[in-house]
C-alpha cells in the first residue's frame, strides 16, 4: 500500500531581507526612542503615528500606467481596485497627513514620528527591507529659524542618547548655494551636465581637488587602471565647483566669504549663503558653536527633493571596520528643507523642514562606544527541586518581584536538575535559588551567585572551587536581602 | 487652443479602514506599553520584535492552491514567486520564530511582543484594519504553573496601568472541561452537533438557563418573534451542558465540585478540572484570591486552537454605551494554552500558553475612568514681536527647555500678531511669552497665563477682564521662574 502523502511542512524562516529582534535589541531601541521623543517633545513637537499602509496614489512615487506599481515598495491591489503599499519613509505619509488634516492641525505643525518603514529592495549584508526611522519635521514655516531649530534639536538629541559633545558634528549646507554654483558655471538648463557635476561633487572625499578637476575636465585614470570619462568642462567652468568644494574655512565666517566668491553673481546662490549666515548666527546666539554645528559645503544629501538648507549629523570618532582598518563612524542623521511635498495634494506650496535619524546606526555607534551593554542580565531563576511545592517557589519569585527584582520559576522539564542550571546559564541569570526538602525542613535556601561562579570557574584551582564560595545558605526570610546584596555587588 | 490636461491630484486620505494617531493618543499608548513591558520583564519575559512581513506559508492560514491568498490578510507576491503577507496577530509569528531559532532560545521561552497587526477585513465604525496587540507567551512549558503565572501577571499588569483591584477580574476556564462535558453528553465525534452546542453556550449570557435548554432541545421563539431551531438534544443529553453553565459556585471550591459533577466520568474532563484546581491553588498560595482571579465556566474564547486553560480579563465597572445605557465595560484581554502551533513547522508538539491584551480597549477604559487626560497640555509659546530678534526668542525657549519646560518659538506667519495667540490656543499652550521692543528696552517680558485667561474669559465681567490679572510683567531674568510658578499653580 502506498504511503499517504503529507502536506510538506512550512519553512520556519523570515522572508528574505527581513529579520527578528530579540530581547535587549528591542529594549535598548525602545529606550533610545523614548529618550529622543523626550527631546522632540520638549522642543514642542507632537507625536504622530500614521498608518503603515498608504494608497500608492498618496505615496506618489509611481506612474499610474504601470501594471504592478511595486518598484521599491511592497504593494498590492485591493479587491475593489485601489493599490495599497507599505510606507517607504515617514516623510511621504507626513505630507499626506498634513494635507488631509490641515484644517485641524496648528500651523506650523511640528511633529515627530518613529517606526518601521519598508523598502522592496534587494537585501544585502546588514541591509534589511524593514528598518526604523525616527523623524522630526516642521511643516508650514518657511523661516530659517525652523531649520536652525532642527539642527539644535539634533545636537541635543545626540547628547541625550549618549554621544558626548566632541564625538559628533552637525554639518549644514544649502542646496541654493549649489544651484548658485551651477549657475555661475554657466551650465544653464543642461540637466545631464548638472547631474554629472553633482555626481562628481560626491566623489570629492575620495579623489580630492585634483581628481575633481580631472573628472570635470577630460577624465581620469582611476586606481584600478580604468579610464573614467570626464564631464568635458573647461577649466573656467570647473572653477566655481572647485572653489565651492574647497570653501570650508577656519570658521563659519571664512567659509561664508569663500562661498560668496564661489557663486559669483548668482542670485539664488546669494540667497543660499544669506540663509546659511542666518542659521549660523541664530545657532551661535544660542551657544551652538562650530564644535557642534558647522557650515560645511561638502554636504550634498542624495534626495532630490531638498530645496534649501540641508544637514547631516556625523559621528567623528573612529571605529575599526570589518577589515580591521580604522575609519570614521560617519553619518547617523540627515535632513533638510523640502518645500514641495504637500503641494502634490493641495496645489499650494507648503514650506517644510525636517530630519531623520538612522536609529539602528545610532544604536550600533553606542554599542561601539560601550555605552550599551551588548547583552542584558537575565532574571533570577528559582529552581524547582520538588514539583509538589511549586507554590513555595512561586511565592519566592513574587517576593523578589515585589522588591523590583526580575525573577522567575523554572518551568521546563524537571527530570534532570542540570537542565535548570543550564537554563539559568542560557538566560544569563545572575542568581539561582535552590530549596530542596532538606533546606525546606531547616528553613533555609541556597543562593548561587552565577556571575561569581563563572569567574571562579575560569580562574580558580580545584581547592578554591570545592570551597564553592559563590553559593550561600541563608534563612528563607533573608532571601530577598541576600539576592539584593549579590546584585548590588555586581552593580546590577 | 485646448488647455493642457494636468494629472489629477492624489487624494489625501488613508486607505479605507486605516487611521492616523496624533500627539497624546500616541504618547499615552507608548507610556502604557512601557508600563506593561515593565511588568512582563519583571516576570522574566524577554522582548521580541518579529518582522511585520511573513511568508504566507509561515503564517499558515491559507490553502496552497488559492491563486491570491489574501483572505483575511494583506498579501502580495514577490517577483521570485513567494507570497508575503502582513502578520494578522503576534502568535503565528511567535510559532515561526520559535521553530526557526529554537536551538538558540532558552526552553521554556518566555517572550512578550507589542506592535501593530493587520487584518484585511471589512472596516466598520471603530473597527480598523491596523491595530495594536500586546502579547506575552511561554513556549515549551506544559506546566499549569505557566498558565497560573500568566493569570497573575495579567492581574498585576492591569493594576500597573491604573485599573484598581475590584475594577477587574481575570476569569479562568479550561477547554478540557468543555470537551469532558461534550463527552458526557454522548455526542461522540458528531462535529456539527458539537459546534451547535458551543454556539449555544456562547448565548448563555443572553438567554439564560431556560433559553439554553430550549435551544439545545426543540428550539426557541426569540424576542423578535423569530423561531430559532434547536440542536435537537434530549433533556438528558442537554443536562451536562446546563450543569456546566450553572456550575459557578460561591467560591472556587464549590465551582470545582459542580464541574466534577457536570463532566460525569469523562477522563479528559477530569483532567481539565484537576488543572483548574491546581491553578486556583497556585494562585491562592500567592495571594491572588477570587477578588482578582476566579474560575468561571462561562469563559469560552473564540479561537479554536486553545487546548487547555483559557483566560479572559474583564473590567467590571459600568460605562454608558452610545445609546446612554449602562453596561459593563467587558473584556480587555484573553488567552490560553495552545499546544499545536509550533508542530506545523517542526513536527514536534511544543506546549505553549499566553495572553493578548487589547491595548486600544484598555486605553479607552482608562480614559473612561478619567485616568488619562483626554488632551495634553501644549508647549509654552514664545511669540515673535520683532522678527530681527529671533535669536532672543530662541534663547528664551532654550532656557525654558533646560529647566525641563516644553517650549517653542512661534515660527509661522508674522504678519498678524493675533495668529500667534490663536496658534497658542490651538496648541493648548498653558503660557505665552511676549517681548516687544518696549519690553526689551526695559528688560522685562510679558507672561500670559492662558489657562487662567480662558477661565476669566468664561466667567469674568468686563471690569475684571480689563484688569487682565492673567498677564504678568516680570524682569527678563525671572522668565523661567515665573513660568514654572504658573505651571505649578495649574498642577502641570
TrEMBL record, chains A, B:
It holds the Pfam family tRNA-synt_His. It comes from the Bacteria. Its main location: cytoplasm. It catalyses: tRNA(His) + L-histidine + ATP = L-histidyl-tRNA(His) + AMP + diphosphate + H(+). One of its GO terms (cellular component) is cytoplasm. InterPro entries: aa-tRNA-synth_II, aa-tRNA-synth_II/BPL/LPL, Anticodon-bd, Anticodon-bd_dom_sf, His-tRNA-ligase, HisRS-like_core, HisRS/HisZ, HisRS_anticodon. GO terms for biological process: histidyl-tRNA aminoacylation. L-histidine binds at residues 89-91, 119, 133, 137, 301, 305-306. The keyword Hydrolase does not apply. CDD domains: HisRS-like_core (cd00773), HisRS_anticodon (cd00859). The keyword Iron-sulfur does not apply. It is found in: Cytoplasm. Residues 1-379 form the Aminoacyl-transfer RNA synthetases class-II family profile domain. PROSITE patterns: AA_TRNA_LIGASE_II. NCBIfam families: hisS. Homodimer. Belongs to the class-II aminoacyl-tRNA synthetase family. This is Histidine--tRNA ligase. It comes from Lutimaribacter pacificus. The lineage of its organism: Bacteria, Pseudomonadati, Pseudomonadota, Alphaproteobacteria, Rhodobacterales. The gene is hisS.
